[in-house]
Amino acid sequence: MSQPYTITTAISYPNGRPHIGHAYEVIATDAITRFQRMMGRDVFFQTGTDEHGLKMDQAARARGIEPRALADEMSGYFKDMNDSLNISYDRFIRTSEPDHHRASQAIWQAMEANGDLYLGRYEGWYSVRDEAFYDEKELIEGEGGEKLSPQGTPVQWTVEESWFFRLSAYQQRLLDLYNSQPGFIQPESRRNEIMRFVEGGLSDLSVSRTSFDWGVKVPGSAEAGTPHVMYVWVDALTNYLTGCGYPDDAERMARYWSEGGDITHIIGKDIVRFHAVYWPAFLMSAKLPLPKQIFGHGFLLNRGEKMSKSVGNVADPMELAERFGVDQLRYFLLSEVTFGNDGSYSAEAIVARSNSDLANSFGNLAQRTLSFIAKNLEGRLPEPAPQDVDSDLLKTISDAARTFQTAMADLAPSTAIEAWMRAVFACNAYIDAQAPWALRKTDPARMEAVLATLYEAITNLAIIIQPVIPASATALLDQMGVPQANRTYGAIGSSAYADLRASGFTLGAPKPLFPRLELTEADS
Ligand code: ME8
């Protein structure tokens, strides 16, 4: 069996509808997933919604409904967004599902059995917006002198009976983990931040609440007199295990959550602490395997500004996808933003990028080549007779395929796309220099050889870019008659083109793939 690969996004709070930041995270994770599947890996990709906690409880109360009703409604929008954006998840998990409650209680009991949970009294600062506890020393001052979390959200002084997790006992083991596995936290800037935080000392973590009941029940607490629900991050992080079969399905766990397993969490930079500090500590305590890497991507900004509901600049990803196209949006986000850095989006930038790369460069290359073949050879695939320039072009594309693969394996989609785009440019330079339309009368054999080279080149370019723009690449490969089994990196540089010709495939009139996008006055 092929080697398993487990990949997850964060699970989103469904206290409102999804925004473009949520779309960005699932799109990036989907591209990596599709790439790993193309590499023949046995991938498990999970995304979903994080439905418990005070934030959800308060958002629901504010609308006069039960948290479960809010979760049911909003979670549907997240799932629809995933489906519309062509996200190939294997499971969309909702933390309100029974198997997830069971997994959360099981990890709780394992941490308790290890002696890491004790009952105490929490007194400290809490941000509902971040669902996070903060030390006094971490707080910043707001404009009116009020105390704010380091993320700039309001904090409230909280006093209640609470279970604690002995996080302080894990400081050295966490530092050892970061030192022995330098790739555990990525990118480097996030790793440094976390190392400083852990070196500064860790307080025990309050891991249960008694002031509301929207969460996973702490085993045994109701029987003992005071019902507790788990701190939402304990259950939220456990979602990753639930999807991998914990605690009942040992076979599934061995496949997707094993010691030394290839397990990647893709999350935003604001929640790296939960994933890189609390999560491995919980897992160590429960004697469970650790993930291999945690990648904290940057934030998307609206024309360079932080998105916020009060400013009214929160973009709806579905609207953008409907207007500009799903693949256009995917391509824009993955090519424009260096994964790990913050990035900006605007209608102008999406239109500019899509028109220059997809419509004018790649789309036009495919369209003019294929329609020329359809018309002048009645769709018969041209016969190769390679000269050095032809083999050189095909070699440039195989090299680009390799660079693309290395970059995607390194979680660097924008670098991968740049390599692909350079290969597209090389094809356009080739077509201009070889001018097959001029050869039609003077040298038809050479014209065929040039078109044959281009046919193979375009096929390979479409194969390479499948993880980024899956629907368009598929449509093109379908038009070009490329059999499913040959849509792999291994088929690049093989006899696939010769085989396709031998099969007698004829090309129909090509359908354009990437319409030129236009801005409207409302965009400026
Ligand atoms: O944090 N740009 O949920 P969430 C890019 N439930 N990414 C962004 C972003 C932006 N402007 N805004 C948010 C949570 N994100 C928890 C996670 S995981 C066990 C629990 C990212 O709905 C954010 O960093 O607030 C996170 O990775 C994801 O969207 C969900 O954010």
TrEMBL record:
Asked if the keyword Transmembrane belongs to this entry, the reply reads no
Cite the CDD domains for this sequence: Anticodon_Ia_Met, MetRS_core
Q: Which InterPro entries match?
A: aa-tRNA-synth_I_CS, Anticodon_Met, Met-tRNA_synth, Met-tRNA_synth_2, Methionyl/Leucyl_tRNA_Synth, MetRS_core, Rossmann-like_a/b/a_fold, tRNAsynth_Ia_anticodon-bd
Domain Methionyl-tRNA synthetase anticodon-binding: residue ranges: 388-518
Main enzyme class? ligase
List, alphabetically, the Gene3D superfamilies matched. 2.170.220.10, HUPs, Isoleucyl-tRNA Synthetase, Domain 1
Ranges spanned by the short sequence motif 'HIGH' region, renumbered to the chain: 12-22
Q: Where in the cell is it found?
A: Cytoplasm
- Give residue ranges for domain Methionyl/Leucyl tRNA synthetase: 6-370
Domain of life where this protein originates: Bacteria
Q: What is its EC number?
A: 6.1.1.10
Keywords on record: Aminoacyl-tRNA synthetase, ATP-binding, Cytoplasm, Ligase, Nucleotide-binding, Protein biosynthesis
> Which Gene Ontology molecular function entries are recorded, alphabetically?
methionine-tRNA ligase activity
- Name the predominant localization: cytoplasm
SUPFAM superfamilies for the chain: Anticodon-binding domain of a subclass of class I aminoacyl-tRNA synthetases, Nucleotidylyl transferase
Q: Where is this motif: 'KMSKS' region?
A: 306-310
The residues that cross the membrane are none
Q: Which reaction does it catalyse?
A: tRNA(Met) + L-methionine + ATP = L-methionyl-tRNA(Met) + AMP + diphosphate
Quaternary form?
A: Monomer.
Q: Which family does it belong to?
A: Belongs to the class-I aminoacyl-tRNA synthetase family. MetG type 2B subfamily.
Could you identify this protein by its name? Answer: Methionine--tRNA ligase
What is the gene called?
A: metG
